[in-house]
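Example record

One chain of 215 residues, shown exactly as stored in the release files.
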Amino acid sequence: MSFGDPNNPYGQQPPQGQPGYPQQAPQGVPPQYGYPQQQPPQAAPQYGYPQQPPAAPYGGYPAPGMPGMPGMPGAGMPPLAHWGQRFGAYLLDVLITVVPMYLLGFIDLATGDNPDEPGVFFMIGVVYAIGMGFFQLYKEGSTGQTTGKKIVGISLRREADGNVLGFGMAFVRKLAHILDGIPCYIGWLWPLWDDKKQTFADKVCSTVVIQVPKG
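Predicted C-alpha cells for this chain:
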C-alpha cells in the first residue's frame, strides 16, 4: 500500500483547518475570526416632515434664521410678562427705594430737636433714595432687570432684536412713563389687553418685557 497512490481512498489527505478554529493566516496578515465583518449599510434617505429647528432658550430671543409666524403679535419673541408680574416688580422696586428713606425720616423726627428742620437721618434717606433710583436705572439699562424684575423673573428688552436698552434709553423710557399717567393712568393698565403687553412708554420706545428665569 502506498500512501502516495492517488487511487488509494485512505491515502494521506492534505491538511485542512480544524472545524471551529480559524486557519492560520499568512505572515503579516491579521487572522480572521468567525464570519467576515459586514460593511455598515448606507444611511437610508430620510422621508417625512423636515426636522424642526432647535427651540430658542427660555428667556432669550430665537436663534437667527428661525422662522416666525407672520401676522401674529409677538411672533418670534419669548413669553411676554403679564401685568401682574410687571406690577409686582414695580412694587418691589418702590419698596426697596422708598421704605428705607421713610424709616430714616421717622428716626430723624424721633431724635431731632426741631421737627420742622430736616436732620441728618432724613438727608441720608434722601441721598439713599436718589442713589438707589439711579442704580436701579443703570441695572435696568445694562442687564434688563431692576432688583424687583430680577426677583419676579422678567426683563426689559428692545423689541427689534432682544438686546438691553442701555442707560440712556432706559432713562428716556422712564420719562416716557409720563404718557402712561396722563389719560387717567390708563397707560399703566394697557398691558392687560394689549397684544404685546406694552404700556404707552413701551410703544414709544419700542420695548417689551419678557419672562426669564428668576434670580
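Notes: Confidence is low (pLDDT under 50) at residues 55-60, 62-73.
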